[in-house]
């Protein structure tokens, strides 16, 4: 894990509004007909460049990939060290308090990146580790129709991918979605793919699996959870093949280069 200072974040108390500055955004343009745009989010301490290079090598000619870089901020998990992160996190466990303000800021940044895409292009979000957590949080914002702070969520998501990640704010999600017909309808229409190695020593496999169950029990009907035997906290070519196949099917891509 490398810690690159590619953005900065103003300090401030929880009661005051923080200023979030995101780092550089990298874009992989489609080689064929532009049918979908997916924002892809890196893990803790990484940046958008590394994932843009990996995604550029995928045989998916109809997707435009947008790979932003998270703000640089003190992260409790690494003793307050400043590194790129989509939110603050104290520990990777279901008992750890979630950083609502940081997650909302990241989800809003993702929505802004998707907001200028053509109307006929299908929109998605995916990520690895903490990036997967931010992607899955965006899925719940889409279903509820609002961010955690109550502001309206403006994007019509069509697919969400989370690799080696977890679902923030899972407590109470089911009640919130069941309490709204529109939220239940949106949740039941959104396909989600989650992949996790069963030897992950950073984000426990059991936590990822429980997150998938939380989404399903909250009304997300189309959650696919894939486990990888003997795999730790990293991605494999066969896992990315699974992502490619799943996205092609869910987004109706023809993978042509014309």
TrEMBL record:
<feature type="region of interest" description="Disordered">
    <location>
        <begin position="1"/>
        <end position="21"/>
    </location>
</feature>
<protein>
    <recommendedName>
        <fullName>Phospholipase/carboxylesterase/thioesterase domain-containing protein</fullName>
    </recommendedName>
</protein>
<dbReference type="GO" id="GO:0016787">
    <property type="term" value="F:hydrolase activity"/>
</dbReference>
<feature type="compositionally biased region" description="Low complexity">
    <location>
        <begin position="1"/>
        <end position="14"/>
    </location>
</feature>
<dbReference type="InterPro" id="IPR029058">
    <property type="entry name" value="AB_hydrolase_fold"/>
</dbReference>
<dbReference type="Pfam" id="PF02230">
    <property type="entry name" value="Abhydrolase_2"/>
</dbReference>
<feature type="domain" description="Phospholipase/carboxylesterase/thioesterase">
    <location>
        <begin position="26"/>
        <end position="248"/>
    </location>
</feature>
<dbReference type="InterPro" id="IPR003140">
    <property type="entry name" value="PLipase/COase/thioEstase"/>
</dbReference>
């Amino acid at each position: 894990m490398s810690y690159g200072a590619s953005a900065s974040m103003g300090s401030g108390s929880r009661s005051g509004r923080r200023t979030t500055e995101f780092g550089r955004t990298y874009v992989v343009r489609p080689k064929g007909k532009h049918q979908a745009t997916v924002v892809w989010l890196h893990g803790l301490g990484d940046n958008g460049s590394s994932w843009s290079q990996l995604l550029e090598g995928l045989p998916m000619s109809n997707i435009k990939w947008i790979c932003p870089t998270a703000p640089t901020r003190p992260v409790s998990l690494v003793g307050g060290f400043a590194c790129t992160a989509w939110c603050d996190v104290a520990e990777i466990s279901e008992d750890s308090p979630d950083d609502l303000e940081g997650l909302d800021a990241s989800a809003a940044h993702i929505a802004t990146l998707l907001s200028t895409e053509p109307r006929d292009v299908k929109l998605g979000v995916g990520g690895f580790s903490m990036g997967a957590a931010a992607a899955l949080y965006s899925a719940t914002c889409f279903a509820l129709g609002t961010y955690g702070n109550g502001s309206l969520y403006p994007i019509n998501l069509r697919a969400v991918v989370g690799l080696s990640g977890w679902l923030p704010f899972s407590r109470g999600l089911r009640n919130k979605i069941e309490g709204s017909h529109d939220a239940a309808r949106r949740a039941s229409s959104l396909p989600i793919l989650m992949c996790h190695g069963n030897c992950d020593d950073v984000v426990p496999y059991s936590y990822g699996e429980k997150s998938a169950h939380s989404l399903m029990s909250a009304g997300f009907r189309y959650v696919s959870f894939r486990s990888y035997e003997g795999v730790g906290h990293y991605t494999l070519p066969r896992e990315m093949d699974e992502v490619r196949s799943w996205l092609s099917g869910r987004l109706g891509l023809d993978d042509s280069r014309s």
